[in-house]
Amino acid sequence: MSFATIERPGTRRMRALLPPLGVAAVTVAAFTVTGLVDPNEPGHYPTCPFLWLTGLYCPGCGTLRTMHALAHLDPVAALGLNPLFVAMMPILLFWWARWVVRAWRGRPPSTSVPHPAWLWAFIAVVMVYWVVRNLPFGAFLAP
Asked: Which pTM value belongs to this model?
């Protein structure tokens, strides 16, 4: 037995936690930058390419301003800018927390995919959101 194969207690657990903690660090960094550099002021961020080309809002339009509002603890403004992004945040947080718990318990990351009906339902919600936010009666969904 060599010394290279001996691990300290908890090393394997910490190594398994690195990926979810890395995702958390990148997310915190993105929210920090967006919170500090106001996307409501022109010139800080590029224009959405879809908006620039078509004049229509994509499902992601308003996400930077939503992140800025959330970084400043203003969920009402965030809901007014991109309600789909705000609605997705608890789901993403749940999946991330599940990933952390699995890593902490020493289980491999889940490789199972949701039932195809859930994926198609999500795609349908995004497509309907995309269309409705560009129609006159859906103006309340526009950023």
From this structure: 0.81
